[in-house]
């Protein structure tokens, strides 16, 4: 662990920013908040001032916590500023100076990294839905008394599978020998808990493409939520556990279906000092990380049989687009579905406002950003929204509900399965 404030803030990287302003039109918070301190260059300048003792960490807190971390600024920066590293360094320093709470410690140290806790959450939500408690709660407005606007997000949750379905999942699947590829599937924590069926559909797509699919036993949370809240050391430990888990077999691909998780996985090598053993192991891990859309396009083993008469627009995950640099593959797959008309957004690069837990802890700001996104969605005239990340999925469902639109949001994987994919060979 580095000791000096300048090192922890990645002070040396702030000098790459020449304050040119190219980032301003790309930044959602600058557009909606209209403050220089809520722009990338403004935040970088503030980080520099804190490192030089000209401003306090308290001055840094609000501008950094209001940042979505969408990394749109990095796609337009002419000097290749490593904003992500500066941002995480600032988050870390802020986290170090605030008091700890038992609930927070439980969530980040025990809850998210635990498959058992994630399954418990999924099963409890299933019981809540199936028992009729959800309908009663919504009828009498009971969930409106919960903090953090939980009632709005709760209403957007998909139907959960029961405990029997979760227990029935195997650790290894194969239908074709020799397999076209051996895939290690990164199931995620929230993704596997809340979007279990989407994970199962991902496995089905891979199997029909001719791949062998394995769930490494030792995998855990990717660490994105930890890093985004300044808990860098915990994020590093989770990265080590995942690297070890996926080293046990020689996978051709390490596949994920959540833009936020995938972005964290491809950044593992940056978390370790060059020349160290962990850096080398992380680089080998990162070389095999792929989004599901990339693998389906590379394997090219599916033909979609069912015609779906609908128009859709695609809302790309910021982290899939800006960090993983996956842009064309999801669009390619959507266009392969017979009967589907794709109407692209005018500003696909504009964040939806989800950003991990941003829409929960910064609700009003997130809704301002979502309003801009929904104007774009409405302008397409599409009858549905396709997403590629669980946070985006829930946020877009919330946006559709707020606008009173007769459409739904669906994960790309679920749309592909609905189109009845069949093996080409």
Automatic annotation (TrEMBL):
Any keyword 4Fe-4S? yes
Q: Which PANTHER family match?
A: GLYCOLATE OXIDASE IRON-SULFUR SUBUNIT
Q: Does the keyword Iron apply?
A: yes
Give the catalytic activity: glycolate + A = glyoxylate + AH2; (R)-lactate + A = pyruvate + AH2
- Keyword annotations of the record: 4Fe-4S, Electron transport, Iron, Iron-sulfur, Metal-binding, Repeat, Transport
Q: Which organism is it from?
A: Halobacillus faecis
Q: What does this protein do?
A: Component of a complex that catalyzes the oxidation of glycolate to glyoxylate.
Where, if anywhere, are coiled coils annotated?
A: none
Instruction: Give the Gene Ontology MF terms in alphabetical order.
Output: 4 iron, 4 sulfur cluster binding; glycolate dehydrogenase activity; metal ion binding
Q: Where is the 4Fe-4S ferredoxin-type domain?
A: 7-38, 57-81
Assigned EC number: 1.1.99.14
Gene3D superfamilies recorded for this chain? Alpha-helical ferredoxin
Question: Which cofactors does it use?
Answer: [4Fe-4S] cluster
Q: What is this protein called?
A: Glycolate oxidase iron-sulfur subunit
Q: How is the cofactor bound?
A: Binds 2 [4Fe-4S] clusters.
Q: Which InterPro entries match?
A: 4Fe4S_Fe-S-bd (IPR017896), 4Fe4S_Fe_S_CS (IPR017900), Cys_rich_dom (IPR004017), Glc_ox_4Fe-4S (IPR012257), Helical_ferredxn (IPR009051)
Where exactly are the transmembrane stretches of this chain? none
Q: PROSITE patterns from the xrefs?
A: 4FE4S_FER_1, 4FE4S_FER_2
């Amino acid at each position: 662990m580095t000791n000096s404030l300048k090192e922890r803030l990645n002070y040396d990287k702030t000098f790459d920013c020449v304050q040119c302003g190219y980032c301003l039109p790309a930044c959602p918070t600058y557009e909606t908040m209209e403050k220089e301190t809520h722009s990338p260059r403004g935040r970088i300048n503030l980080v520099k001032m804190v490192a030089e003792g000209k401003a306090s960490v308290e001055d840094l807190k609000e501008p950094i916590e209001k940042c979505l971390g969408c990394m749109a600024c990095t796609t337009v920066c002419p000097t290749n500023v490593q904003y992500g590293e500066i941002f995480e360094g600032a988050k870390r320093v802020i986290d170090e100076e605030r008091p700890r709470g038992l609930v927070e410690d439980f969530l980040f140290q025990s809850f998210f990294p635990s498959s058992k806790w994630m399954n418990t959450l999924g099963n409890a939500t299933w019981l809540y839905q199936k028992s009729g408690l959800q309908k009663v709660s919504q009828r009498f407005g009971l969930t409106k008394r919960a903090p953090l606007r939980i009632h709005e997000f709760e209403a957007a949750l998909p139907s959960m599978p029961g405990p029997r379905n979760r227990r029935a999942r195997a650790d290894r699947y194969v239908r074709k020998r020799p397999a076209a590829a051996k895939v290690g599937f990164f199931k995620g924590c929230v993704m596997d808990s809340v979007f279990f069926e989407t994970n199962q559909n991902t496995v089905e797509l891979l199997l029909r493409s001719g791949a062998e699919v394995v769930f490494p036993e030792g995998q855990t949370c990717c660490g994105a939520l930890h890093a985004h809240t300044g808990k860098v050391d915990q994020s590093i430990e989770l990265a080590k556990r995942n690297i070890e888990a996926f080293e046990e077999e020689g996978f051709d691909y390490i596949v994920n279906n959540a833009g936020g998780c995938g972005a964290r996985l491809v950044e593992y090598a940056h978390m370790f000092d060059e020349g160290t053993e962990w850096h080398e192991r992380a680089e080998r891990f990162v070389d095999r990380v792929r989004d599901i859309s990339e693998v389906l396009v590379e394997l090219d083993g599916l033909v979609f049989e069912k015609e779906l008469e609908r128009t859709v627009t695609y809302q790309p995950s910021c982290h899939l687009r800006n960090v993983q640099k996956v842009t064309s593959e999801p669009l390619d797959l959507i266009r392969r579905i017979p009967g589907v008309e794709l109407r692209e957004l005018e500003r696909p690069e504009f964040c939806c406002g989800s950003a991990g837990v941003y829409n929960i802890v910064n609700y009003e700001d997130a809704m301002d950003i979502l309003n801009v996104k929904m104007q774009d969605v409405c302008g397409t005239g599409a009858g549905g929204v396709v997403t590629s990340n669980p946070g985006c999925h829930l946020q877009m469902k919330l946006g559709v509900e707020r606008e009173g639109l007769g459409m739904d949001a669906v994960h790309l994987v679920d749309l592909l399965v609905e189109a009845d994919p069949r093996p080409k060979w």
